[in-house]
Design goal:
binds ligand PBG, TIM Barrel, two-stranded antiparallel sheet, 39% helix, 10-stranded mixed sheet, alpha/beta, globular
Length: 325
């Protein structure tokens, strides 16, 4: 029954009516805030390409974590910048590594804040790749053991959840088995299941100092055009024991998020990555866009596509806006 019986504008007349028929809304419980931790004391170093994002030392990180918790954000995702890098990324799985110490410090000071750790070698290897190098290749099976060791060391430090981002085949199963053997059968795995080889990670690699020193990550991260393959990646990770599966990046991959939501019954996370964040910041700095509205619209689109959880550098600002600041 078309016009004039149907008038779609009837339910758009006032903000109150719009609120009543609104289909989704991003809430703070949907958000995970990434944090970068480095060695040192009293460090709070601005990441040049990511306004509002810093590298913290453990003391300033704990303050930040407290603030994040007070704002009502439930979880952080931790990335570490090691003192030294080597071929095998040794600090990634050292019991006194930067992330292990940071997790311990946060859990002691702010026990209710969920601490998720990024499990990868690329910040810790001298060559910047996410695994061990054999010849000119990133060796899959040899890497698994180190990835699993890294996850277990994070759990030992008190991590609430581990998030492997290396994209080696079989890492979820290796991690699950290693965690279970070490009595961490209750620690969930959020796997970066469909992680694409994306140019949107550029600013992050400044923040974490993990740009590959030769080649790129296309032999292990996914080829951006592949949609069916993303579903295969996700289903394999679920079979291997992933509790939450992630699509990354978010904005150019909303179709993948939507497909994943329609296909699987586990919680879906999406990573609103560094390049997506810095484009908004750069355009807002020039007054080309309204930052608050654009950010809210972006987060809403990611949730509307089907994400239950959104990892975003905008979490704190969003929380402040929600609080009316
Ligand atoms: C590490 C990792 C990366 C990101 C998260 N974990 C970089 C990469 O894979 O090169 C990117 C996050 C972002 O861009 O915000 N493997």
């Amino acid at each position: 029954m078309p016009f004039p019986i149907n008038r779609m504008r009837r339910l758009r007349r006032t903000e109150t009516i719009r609120r009543m028929v609104r289909e989704i809304e991003v809430t703070l419980d949907d958000l995970i805030y990434p944090l970068f931790v480095a060695h040192g004391l009293d460090v709070k170093l601005q990441v040049p390409s990511m306004p509002g994002v810093f590298q913290y030392s453990i003391d300033t990180l704990v303050k930040e974590a407290r603030e994040v918790k007070e704002l009502g954000i439930p979880a952080v995702l931790l990335f570490g910048i090691p003192a030294d890098k080597d071929e095998r990324g040794s600090e990634a799985y050292a019991s006194d590594g930067i992330v292990q110490r940071a997790v311990h410090a946060i859990k002691e000071a702010v026990p209710d804040l969920i601490v998720i750790t990024d499990v990868c070698l690329c910040e810790y290897t001298s060559h910047g790749h996410c695994g061990i190098i054999k010849g000119k290749e990133v060796a899959n099976d040899e890497t698994l053991e180190l990835i699993a060791r890294t996850a277990v060391s994070h759990a030992c430090a008190g991590a609430d959840m581990v998030a492997p981002s290396d994209m080696m085949d079989g890492r979820v199963l290796s991690i699950r088995e290693a965690l279970d053997e070490s009595d961490f059968s209750d620690v969930p795995i959020m796997s970066y299941a469909a992680k694409f080889a994306s140019a949107f990670y550029g600013p992050f690699r400044d923040a974490a100092g993990c740009a590959p020193q030769f080649g790129d990550r296309s032999s292990y991260q996914m080829d951006p055009p592949n949609r069916r393959e993303a579903l295969k990646e996700i289903s394999l990770d679920i079979e291997e024991g992933a509790d939450i599966v992630m699509v990354k990046p978010a904005l150019s991959y909303l179709d993948i998020i939507s497909d994943a939501r329609g296909t699987f019954d586990v919680p879906i996370a999406a990573y609103n990555v560094s390049g997506e964040y810095c484009m908004v910041k750069a355009a807002a700095a020039k007054n080309y866009i309204d930052e608050r509205r654009v950010t809210t619209e972006i987060l809403t689109s990611i949730k509307r596509a089907g994400a239950d959880l959104i990892i975003t550098y905008s979490a704190k600002e969003f929380a402040l806006w929600q609080a009316g600041v």
